[in-house]
Amino acid sequence: MIKEIVKWRPIIIGIVLVITLYVISDLISSVSILLPSFLLAGLIVGFMINESEKNGAINGAILGLIGGLIVNVFLIIYYYSLGYGDYISSILLYSVMNLILQIVVAAVGGVLGSLIKAESVKNRPVEEIEE
C-alpha cells in the first residue's frame, strides 16, 4: 500500500530541485528563497504524481522531510564553520522549527499541484475521432 501512495521519482526530482535552488540562491547570491523553493518543488511533485490531494500532501510532506533534513544539515555545518559553534542549541532549535515549516509548505505545494493537475485534466477538450 505504501508503494502505491509514495512516488519516489517525483520526490527525488523535487529534492534535487530544492537543493539546487538552495545552493544557487543562498550560498552563491546570499538571498534565501528556501521556502518558495519548497513550495515550487511541492507543486511539481503534486503535479507529477497525478493522483488525489491526499497523495499530493503525503508526497509533498515526504519531500519536505527529506529535503528539509538535507538543507538543515547544510545550514548547521555552514553556521558551525562560520564560528557559531557556541550557539549550537539555538541553531538546532531554529533548524527544527525550519524543518516543520518546510514540511508544511511542501505538503501545501503537493496539494496545490494535485489540484492544478486535476483542473487541467478536467478542462481539457475532448478530441473527436474522425473515421
Automatic annotation (TrEMBL):
It comes from the Archaea. The keyword ATP-binding does not apply. InterPro entries: DUF5518. Keywords: Membrane, Transmembrane, Transmembrane helix. The chain crosses the membrane at residues 7-25, 31-49, 61-80, 92-116. The keyword Transmembrane applies. This is DUF5518 domain-containing protein. It holds the Pfam family DUF5518. It comes from Methanobacterium formicicum (strain DSM 3637 / PP1).
